[in-house]
Each structure stands twice: as C-alpha cells, then as structure tokens.
Amino acid sequence: MILKLAIGTGLLGAAGAVCAATCAPIAVGSTFSNNTTVTSATIVVATPAVPEHCRLVARIRNAEDGLSNIQVEYRLPGAVQWNRKLLGLGNGGLAGSFQSTAQATAAVANGYATAQTDTGHAASANATWALTAPGDVNEVTLTDFGNRSIHLMTMVAKEVIQTYYGSAPRLSYFQGCSTGGREASREVQQYPTDYDGVIAGAPLIAHTRKQLMAAWEMQQFYKDPAATLRREHPALIQDSVMKACDALDGVVDGVLDDPRRCKWDPQELLCSGEPSASCLTQPQIDAVRRIYEGPINDAGEQLYPAHPRGLETAWTNWLGFGSSGTGSNAASALQTFRYMVFLNPTYDIFSFDINNPADVAAIDNSLMAIAGHATNPDIRPFIDRGGKLIIYHGFDDNGFTPYVTIDYYEQVEKILAAHLRPAGNPHAAVREHARLFLLPGVDHCGGGTAGPDTADWLTPLERWVEEGVAPERIVATKVASGRSRPLCAYPLVARYTGSGSTETADNFVCVTGIGEGAGHGEGKGK
To answer: What is the pLDDT of residue 90?
Structure first.
C-alpha cells in the first residue's frame, strides 16, 4: 500500500493558471546521467481535476555497470503551473510498476513535478526477479530494489527538471508508505542530500527481520493444528481486549490510544467444555500469548517486537485462518525467504527455526538486508543540512508492528540528542528535526475498524520545511464515520477534554503518554 494516508489538502487544489504543457526540449531518445534514455514523451490531456502536462518514461541503466533496467516516470506541469518543487513517490510490496499514478496526478494538479519508479524489475506473481538461478542472487536487481533505484530516479529527476524548465527544483520532497516508507527512510540515511523533507509511513525498515516474524507467527498457529484459530476467533479476542482496555484512555470508542498499556491475557477465554467459536483451547491460548510476546529464542533474545493488542480482526488478513499459510504475512515471508534469503524456490517457511543461528544469520546477512534495510539511526547528515522527517505508523498495524518504528525513532532521538547537546529538554530539540506520529486503531497504511486513518501529511511537512513551523498535531479522520482525532507528536497522546463530542478532534488535547521504551521488546533490525 502506498500513501493511503498521505493524500489530503496538501495535494488537492485548484489547477491554477492554464498553461499548455509540452515535452520539448525533451523527446524520445534524450539522454541523461546514469545511462538514462527517454523511451516515451507524451502530452497528457487535461481533465477537470488535472491540467495538461508532460509525461516522460525513461530507462536508467546506472553508471556503475550499466546492467540496471530501472523504469522511471516523470510528470511535469506547465511552466506557469509548476510550483518549483519535486515530489518523489514510493512503492508498495515488491514494487515492479508505477504504483502511484493517482497520487502523481493529484500532485501535478497542485503544481508539483513528480517522480516514481518500478525499482528495476517488472511485477510478477513471485519474486523470481531476485534470482538469476537457484542459489544465485541477482545482485543488480536486488540492489536496485533495495536502495539504488530511488536515488537514481531522484538524481535524474532533477536533471530532467533543469532541462525542461531551465531551473532546478527549489525544494524536493518524498513520501511513501510500507515499502515506500522503507525507501523514504533509506533516502534519509544513505542519500541525505536528495530531499529536503521526507514522509516515511509504516516503514518496513528491517524487511528480512519482519519476514522472520511472519514465518514464526505462522508456525505458532499452524505447526500444531490444535493451535489454529477459527475464523470467528479474532473478533472474539478483539472484543475481549476492548472490554478489558478500551476505557483506559478515558473514552470507550473501540480504539486503544496506546496498545502498550493493555495487558489483557487470553486465558479468560479458555473453553470449559467442547471447543467452539466462543472460546479458546489451551493450545490456542498459548499461541495467542506468544503472538503478543513476539519471537523470543531459547536464549531469551527478542528477535523482533510483538504484535499490538487491539485490532485482532486484522489477523484474518495478515495471519489467515482456515488453512495453513493463507495470510498475507506468510505469502510475503515465502517470497523473501525463497528468492532473497535462502535462494531456493522450494524453501518451506515452516522449516525456518529461530533457534538455529544459521537461519537467523542467513536473514541478517542476505543482500536484501544489506542493500534494503533502513535501520541506521544516525541521520545527522540529513538534519545538519536542514532536512525534516515525519514518520507515521498505525498503532495497530498487524502487517509491520509499530513497535519496530518506535524502537527506531527512540534510537534516532538518542543519537541526535547527543549530537545537538541542547541545554533544555533533549527530546524537544530532536523533535525540531524528526517527529513520529502514531495512529491509534489503524492497521497498515490505513484501515482498521474505528481509528481515524486518513490524514494530510504533505502540508504539515511543507510548513515545517518552508516556514519553520513544526507539526504538534495532525488531524486524522475516519471517512466512513466522520470521526476525527488529533495525531500527537510522540510520545504525546490524545486525551479527551471531558466536554463536547468524542467524535471531534477539537475536543482532544495532546498530553504525555507512557513514554519511551515501554515494554514492547527492543527488537533487532540489522
């Protein structure tokens, strides 16, 4: 999923003055750095919502070995309409196509030149593109997917803009969610001069470690058939969680403002008679408990943080119930293990063992981990040049646990606090450069039962970069219900004032939550 939360009033606006776009002086065959050749140059006809503009498609071969096959798309509004800004857009899943067309055209309507890429390979049912043959990783393609494609897309975008408009972009922004959040994070860490402001949503910063978690959690529910939940059980578990913990934040609304405060134990659902949809057997209870604890090996090492409580109904999608390995997490783990880690197209994720050091080492030492992970908390080069970073994550994300993002952000704080050496509150100083926003009750890049999941992230970032106004709170809405809530800069949380409707953000204030390092497992992301 890409940018489901990122599109709001910052991208939607009047088309502005009419100025017919043309692609000259760029045409098919035009070349740019990094062995880039334009393969398509067309005029996109205006619609009531989007002005006429130039759409370029190009192939980047890279300047190192010329073996890449990175497809990129650039959309360029007319010179009068251009706001002198570049917006790079991220991918989702395993990429493989231009996935952000709706976001790109909306951005063009607001004056942005945009860039997106397939990351160097064509989409396929399996990640076979990551192998040249069983046992042999495709180093070029996996490196492009891991980090190089976004960087080269950005470098060439700035050259294209210079050629087309006669001037470079005044400011450059990037936004993405999921894989796009990983791409955003890697840009900040490895290529700090590419963008002035970055939005990293639900960032998959430790791709292979996340797949360790996915394989392990499937084993908890499916290796022993007695532990497999019925399809009715996730809703039963979520109802019990809400009865125990919903009121902890002062409002009974089907949302936990901070799942870490909830310590509900599934033992209360133990069947007193025959197994049924309204109770759990002991093996099922034990499996659920382990999911709330996360993968811990026999040596007591937490290999990845746990799932949060509060949106167990999402387990039907992510974990799957009814037959072994049907969940989205298992499918993702299978692709990663077969084609990026163990390089064996027949590898069975149920053979993976968290207590086997060789299995864990294979995950951490894979090219995907080296080229694609975005876990370096030292972002000093980015913030020293004035860069601003907004990170957001659904607090009930059952695809990529938010606790990884919280761990990472706290590591960033420690490094930047020491670097900035503020006289006052070190966290306050850090938050002048990087801020984290958690969305209670929200799943991966959006969704969930009751938590407001739609927000405009770009406008606050623009104000931060261009006006120096850091976002204290960002209002999110649940479109279906109309509910709105403020999203507070971590570690603050929203609290009801005690008067007015609990469905309206205006009646909530940001207050200190339970704070950093709050018992969700330190995780490990190499």
So the answer is: 97
